[in-house]
């Protein structure tokens, strides 16, 4: 691989890399994706697929703006992926029920500002919304329009659609470094040789900071482990996404119920632990006692690309004019993905964007202290 293969080389074939590729292919660019392992097998696969940040009013405007735009994109995107790939990403408006929220006034102010349906409900109404909910709570907030996507199915659909549209995937191809000169990257260096392109995009999640370190860019992105469990139940047993004290229940269309997650700063250690399994199980049973009757089908861990305030890095490298970054989405890669990809693609294809990109630029984010 020592000749130019595409107009754009994207390093990282997770949900962010593939959504960016989708935007660029639609704009007429040829795209190659280089993936160190298998496509979409890191945090893109491991996450829950809730199409809202958890407690969105606690995030900066820059995160909420991307979420709002992505939420508008998702219904059409899901339909398009089903048509193009034959794989249904299972977009559903399950709604989001949040119990014992202390900063309810902040939530109401945020909802009014962003014109998001949100209502305060009592215990009786909350249990009508989700009958399996336990009674040990005092108040709840209900966001009926919040959706979910089944992210493993979505990423499979993205890959099939992209390959049919001519994008190239090179899996088990880790980028080890860069060859650059004259203020531009000339090639990505892999164990199999150099890969050249006119433009490069780094979308490598938790591995982004290490990959860009030699370019002189220091980004406050670090791996944050999250462990989750999956219960196998009958369809319709649980109906709503429910959030309590930072932990969530997500019902899938086929009856499976996902519960998560931990938040662990353990470096690149991705193993599961018995301690987390026990803790998650007890939290799940406390929130929805019916889950105690269901078998645990799977327990897994993923590495989120953590940033200090959850604001992702989207934009051009401050010193290398053809190297772009789209990473650091922390817990919100799925919900922020479509808008992030469009924002980056606009910078590559048009040199401008519909919104102010300052907060996302690598040179700005690099100034933030790491957690």
What is the fold's blueprint, element by element?
Layout: E1 4-11, H1 15-26, E2 31-34, H2 43-46, H3 61-85, E3 96-99, H4 104-114, E4 119-121, H5 123-129, E5 140-143, H6 151-164, E6 168-170, E7 175-181, E8 184-190, E9 193-202, H7 208-212, E10 222-231, E11 241-244, E12 247-251, E13 257-260, H8 274-287, E14 296-306, E15 313-316, E16 323-327, H9 333-349, H10 362-365
Parallel strand pairs: 1-2, 1-9, 2-6, 3-11, 9-16
Antiparallel strand pairs: 3-5, 4-5, 7-8, 8-9, 10-13, 10-14, 11-12, 12-13, 15-16
What would your notes on this structure say?
With 371 residues, this protein is of the alpha/beta class. It is built from ten helices and 16 strands. A hairpin with a 2-residue loop joins strand 7 and strand 8. Helix 1 runs parallel beside helix 9. The longest helix is centred in the N-terminal third of the chain and has 25 residues.
- Coarse shape: globular
Total number of strands: 16
Domains counted in the coordinates: how many? 2
DSSP helical segment count: 10
Query: In angstroms, what separates the terminal alpha carbons?
Result: 38 Å
- The fourth-level CATH homologous superfamily of the largest domain is FAD/NAD(P)-binding domain
The unreliable regions are none
Biggest sheet features: 8 strands, mixed
Using only C-alpha atoms, the radius of gyration works out to 20 Å
CATH class designation of the largest domain: Alpha Beta
Q: What is the percentage of strand-forming residues?
A: 25-35%
Briefly note the CATH topology name of the largest domain: FAD/NAD(P)-binding domain
Please estimate the helix content: 25-40%
Order of helices and strands: EHEHHEHEHEHEEEEHEEEEHEEEHH
CATH architecture level-2 label of the largest domain: 3-Layer(bba) Sandwich
GO cellular component, one term: cytoplasm
Pathway: Cofactor biosynthesis; thiamine diphosphate biosynthesis
Keywords: Oxidoreductase, Thiamine biosynthesis
Protein name: Glycine oxidase
């Amino acid at each position: 691989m020592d000749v130019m293969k595409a107009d754009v080389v994207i390093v990282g074939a997770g949900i962010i890399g593939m959504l960016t590729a989708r935007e660029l292919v639609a704009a007429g660019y040829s795209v190659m994706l280089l993936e160190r392992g298998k496509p979409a097998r890191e945090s893109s696969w491991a996450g829950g697929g809730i199409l809202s940040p958890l407690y969105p009013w606690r995030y900066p405007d820059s995160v909420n703006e991307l979420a709002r735009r992505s939420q508008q994109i998702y219904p059409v995107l899901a339909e398009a992926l089903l048509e193009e790939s034959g794989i249904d990403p299972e977009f559903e408006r399950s709604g989001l029920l949040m119990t014992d929220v202390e900063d309810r006034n902040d939530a109401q102010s945020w909802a009014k500002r962003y014109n998001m349906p949100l209502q305060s409900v009592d215990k009786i109404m909350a249990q009508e919304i989700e009958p399996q909910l336990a009674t040990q709570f005092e108040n709840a907030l209900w966001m009926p329009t919040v959706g979910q996507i089944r992210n493993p199915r979505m990423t499979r659909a993205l890959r099939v659609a992209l390959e049919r549209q001519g994008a190239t995937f090179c899996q088990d191809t880790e980028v080890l470094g860069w060859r650059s000169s004259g203020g531009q990257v000339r090639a990505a260096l892999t164990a199999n040789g150099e890969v050249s392109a006119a433009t490069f995009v780094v979308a490598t999640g938790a591995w982004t900071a290490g990959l860009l370190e030699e370019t002189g860019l220091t980004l406050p992105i670090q791996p944050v482990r999250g462990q989750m469990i999956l219960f196998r139940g009958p369809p319709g047993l649980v109906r709503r996404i429910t959030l309590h004290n930072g932990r969530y229940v997500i019902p899938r269309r086929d009856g499976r119920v996902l519960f998560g997650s931990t938040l662990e700063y353990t470096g690149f250690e991705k193993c599961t632990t018995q301690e987390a399994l026990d803790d998650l199980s007890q939290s799940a049973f406390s929130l929805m006692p019916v889950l105690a009757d269901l078998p645990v089908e799977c327990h897994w861990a993923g590495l989120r690309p953590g940033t200090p305030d959850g604001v992702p890095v989207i934009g051009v490298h401050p010193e290398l004019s053809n190297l772009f970054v789209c990473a650091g989405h922390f817990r919100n890669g799925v919900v922020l993905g479509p808008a992030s990809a469009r924002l980056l693609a606009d910078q590559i294809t048009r040199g401008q964007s519909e919104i102010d990109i300052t907060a996302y630029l690598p040179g700005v984010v690099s100034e933030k202290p790491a957690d």
